[in-house]
Specification:
Layout (H helix, E strand, L loop, with lengths): L6 E7 L32 H11 L4 E5 H7 L5 H6 L3 E7 L6 H14 L4 E5 L1 H5 L1 H4 L7 E3 L5 H13 L9 E4 L5 E3 L17 H11 L17 E4 L1 E2 L12 H8 L5 E2 L2 H12 L6 E4 L7 H14 L5 E4 L6 H10 L2 E8 L3 H7 L6 H13 L5 E7 L6 H5 L1 H12 L5 E7 L9 H4 L5 E3 L4 H7 L5 H4 L2 E3 L4 H21 L5 H25 L3 H19 L21 H23 L17
Parallel strand pairs: 1-2, 1-3, 3-4, 4-5, 8-11, 11-12, 12-13, 13-14, 14-15
Antiparallel strand pairs: 5-6, 6-7, 9-10, 16-17
Helix pairs in contact: 1-7, 4-18, 8-23, 10-11, 11-12, 16-20, 20-21, 21-22
């Protein structure tokens, strides 16, 4: 009889660089604008929806955040841990390319320790490089597309029943002779209501089922600052040139012609689930208006009815007026993120990110601040198409102008980050040379090898027609330093934050210089030189382009445990008992996808 408790699938979320704990690599500011660290320990939220969908179909699925476990405990033995796990399939996410080295290293380790188990890859980057990825000897499957819950179910069912794999949608696999087989990419759902994504209830049940909280924690600081998110859509209406999640990238990688939206009812249900365990801010991914204003009004009407205790963080892709902001103000407590990337209107037009006039931008800022926005974060970027060194530096002058106009009240904050470490494959800028990028790495293996370089500047996969890698790095630190000065002058940060950022920037620039000097030495002298600067590298890796808490929103209470959470857990555990009984009896009621699909071809 089949073991009803054996894992059918274990998801392993890898660090960016597998051996980061024993390697002196200066990762720099590549993750300064996201909650996770340079090891990108935040796993894709889609893992929870896949796991939950599969468990409803009587499969045991566990998520293990290896990156977090490795960061949490310096002595956590990855090889020993994986050797003790048993599963039919080990799934490894390769959603974004900064995981190229860590993901492939974990896959190779899994296949060595469990030669009879199967290794599955998924994610946007895995989909883009599926034909290269399947040729690695330790990779058995690649599941393609942006929505893979049903294709993975089909794969596990085929493996359980011993049937062929040719009918599994979106699957790239190896035939008996080792040759690659590419099944058509036909599973492209037109909405997201068939799953819960993220599925926080699965995560909570999983803690009890598998007895480990650390495996599910999304990033290293989450227990101190438990930010959550709701997913507006898969796919995007915008076509920013450097984004691997843009409209054209989704068409190229996943054959998606239009976004798949989550309904207002489901979004409200997601928010209600979050309020059962958390009072921390909730981030809504994508502008709430991208599905149209009718849908947007329905979303905020349902949020208003919830009387949401959490703060809602929104992002805007295009200008907004007073009518929109009044609706938001009447519905929720809220803050705003706007990624404009440049003060220069022409550069924004070319790049496709907020391609509107500064007059419209400033009108939007004014409207937000006049309608209860608690904090407004503006993000600039160094390294966008055709941007000169001088244009990168001029973003500081524009922020100075904005502070003179909107600085009263201390709500307007600005940040900068370089476009790093890689230009996203599938993006318009990666595919089209007219955007001015000299792309250094084209293949998956080249990106994998790039992550073994000593510093983030050397990892950069591109130079532009206007800026070298050295200039991109130098401009990033210079702009960050001047923004730090401005924010301190206007009372937006305290003296401790100002001093810490100033020290961090100086340490980072010094380390870059030392690494360059070391790289110029004869090969036989480099190891000794690296040993001498090891402490400097470790210190610089703790540095950032802004204060450690600057990107956080005010938090009065972290967690909330109430009757809703208790009832949800009780119901989930009861369902798990029923599933286990069905597995023991060998009774599997298949619950495949029943939603609508887009028309697609391979």
């Amino acid at each position: 009889m089949r073991n009803p408790f054996r894992r059918d699938l274990i998801f392993l979320h890898p660090p960016s660089i597998y051996d980061f704990r024993g390697k002196d690599v200066f990762l720099g500011p590549i993750a300064d604008a996201v909650p996770s660290t340079g090891e990108f320990e935040m796993y894709p939220v889609g893992l929870t929806s896949i796991a939950s969908f599969l468990e409803k179909n009587h499969y045991n699925v566990q998520i293990v955040n290896l990156a977090h476990r490795m960061m949490q405990r310096s002595r956590f033995d990855v090889e020993r841990y994986i050797s003790r796990q048993e599963a039919t399939v080990f799934g490894i996410d390769l959603h974004w390319l900064p995981h190229a080295q860590g993901a492939l290293a974990i896959a190779e380790l899994v296949k060595r320790l469990h030669p009879k188990s199967l290794v599955l890859f998924g994610g946007l980057s895995a989909s883009y490089y599926h034909d290269e990825l399947i040729n690695y000897p330790f990779v058995d499957f690649v599941i393609r597309g942006d929505s893979t819950e049903e294709p993975v179910r089909q794969l596990l069912q085929a493996l359980r029943e011993g049937s062929g794999l040719s009918a599994v949608e979106n699957l790239t696999w190896k035939a008996a002779d080792g040759s690659a087989v590419v099944n058509p990419l036909t599973f492209i759902p037109t909405d997201l209501d068939y799953v819960d994504v993220p599925d926080y209830r699965y995560a909570m049940r999983s803690v009890f089922k598998y007895g480990n909280l650390s495996n599910l924690i999304p990033y290293i600081e989450w227990m101190r600052y438990p930010l959550t998110m709701i997913l507006n859509s898969r796919g995007c209406t915008q076509d920013c040139s450097v984004c691997g999640g843009s409209a054209s990238a989704y068409r190229r990688i996943g054959l998606r012609s239009r976004p798949a939206y989550r309904s207002p009812e489901k979004l409200a249900a997601d928010v209600k689930t979050i309020t059962s365990f958390s009072r921390a801010p909730i981030f809504m991914v994508h502008d709430p208006r991208i599905g149209g204003m009718t849908r947007c009004r329905e979303i905020f009407a349902k949020l208003q009815a919830l009387d949401l205790p959490n703060e809602l963080i929104l992002e805007l892709f295009f200008p907004a007026n007073g009518e929109f902001f009044t609706m938001v103000e009447n519905s929720v407590r809220w803050s705003l993120e706007m990624t404009i990337e440049s003060h220069d209107e022409e550069l924004r037009r070319i790049n496709g990110k907020f391609p509107f006039s500064n007059e419209q931008l400033e009108s939007t800022i004014a409207g937000a601040l006049a309608h209860g926005c608690r904090k407004l974060d503006l993000f600039f970027m160094v390294g966008i198409p055709h941007q000169t060194y001088g244009q990168a530096l001029a973003s500081v002058d524009y922020y100075r102008h904005l502070l003179e106009r909107f600085g009263e009240g201390g709500k307007l904050h600005a940040y900068v980050s370089p476009l790093s470490p890689f230009l996203d494959p599938g993006s318009r800028a990666f595919e089209d040379s007219s955007f001015g990028y000299q792309v250094r790495y084209r293949t998956l293996e080249e990106h994998r090898q790039a992550l073994t370089q000593l510093s983030w500047k050397d990892m950069l996969s591109f130079e532009t027609d206007e800026m070298s890698r050295e200039e991109i790095a130098r401009a990033s630190y210079l702009v960050a330093g001047e923004l730090n000065e401005l924010k301190y002058k206007h009372g937006l940060i305290d003296v401790a934050t100002y001093s810490a950022v100033s020290h961090s920037l100086a340490a980072a620039e010094a380390v870059l210089g030392e690494i360059d000097r070391t790289a110029s030495l004869p090969v036989d002298k480099r190891a000794a030189a690296l040993t001498m600067i090891r402490r400097q590298i470790q210190t610089a890796n703790g540095a950032a382009l802004c204060g450690v808490d600057e990107l956080k929103w005010p938090l009065s209470q972290r967690f909330h445990v109430g009757s809703t959470l208790a009832r949800g857990l009780a119901g989930g555990l009861l369902r798990e008992f029923r599933y286990t009984a069905a597995r023991v009896a060998g009774s599997y009621d298949v619950a495949p996808f029943e939603g609508r699909r887009a028309e697609a071809s391979s």
